[in-house]
Amino acid sequence: MLGGNVVVVVSALLATSTTFVSSLVHSRSTTQLSRESSAWRRRSPSGTRRYSETGRKRELTCGLQITVRIRGKKSREEDYTNQAYDEYAKRLRPVLALDTQWHKTDDDLEAAVRKDPGVVVCLDEGGRQMNSPAFSDFVFSKLEEGGSRLTFVVGGAEGLPPGLKQKPPHGGAKLSLSSMTFTHLWARALLAEQIYRASEIRRGSKYHKE
Do both 76 and 178 map to the same domain? Predict the structure, then answer.
């Protein structure tokens, strides 16, 4: 009889301990998610925040949209640049949607850009240069200013169409990635990496190192 009583007592203690540990873990997880949510609320443009949770992975979806408009066509000759762009676009998905639109002529490019909502930033060798932390502030301030929409414009071999080069529409700006010259495919890949870096700087991760 004594042995049976001991087994019952031990089983009850184990059940109580398991319930306590589960409750503690749940409480800690809830607190951590609350902190993450608060951190993103401080760093994200207002009015567009949505949070979703799938399993144990918590993702931020802000409804942010960045479009890259390019004069030219997607080529397989430098496919490694396409792979690089796709990788950074994939990494950005929890935070924002990064999309590319290709245009065959300068007229098509300019017409599409002028219809875009939000702020327009034209990449040009004579544009403003900045370091990565400044670019991070620039990108998210323009997203805030443009209602969560931002367009980057990459010209063709001859550069930007005159109408865009002279004065970017919607009170936009001109930006230079470097004093060096890149193909439009390389510019696209570099821009994608810098946008991803900008999001990581804003998030406070260890991706960017001074």
Answer: yes
Tell me, what DSSP letter sits at residue 184? H
Q: Give me the chain's average pLDDT, please.
A: 78
Are residue 27 and residue 88 in the same domain, yes or no? no
150 strand-pairing partners: 66, 119
**Structure confidence at residue 157 as a pLDDT band (50, 70, 90):** confident
Confidence band of 62 (pLDDT split at 50, 70, 90): low
Output the CA angle 205-150-200, nearest 5 degrees.
5
Asked if 34 and 68 sit in the same domain, the reply is: no
- Asked if residue 149 belongs to a domain, the reply is yes
What single DSSP character describes residue 166?
H
- Confidence band (pLDDT; 50, 70, 90) for 6? very low
Q: Is residue 110 part of a domain?
A: yes
What lies within 8 Å, CB to CB, of 202 at 6+ separation is 43, 136, 140
Structural domain harbouring 22: 2-43
| Residue 64 to residue 36: CA distance in whole angstroms | 19
* Cα–Cα dist 204/181, whole Å: 31
* Per-residue pLDDT reduced to its tens digit, 93-116: 988 999 999 999 999 999 999 999
SS3 label, residue 83? helix
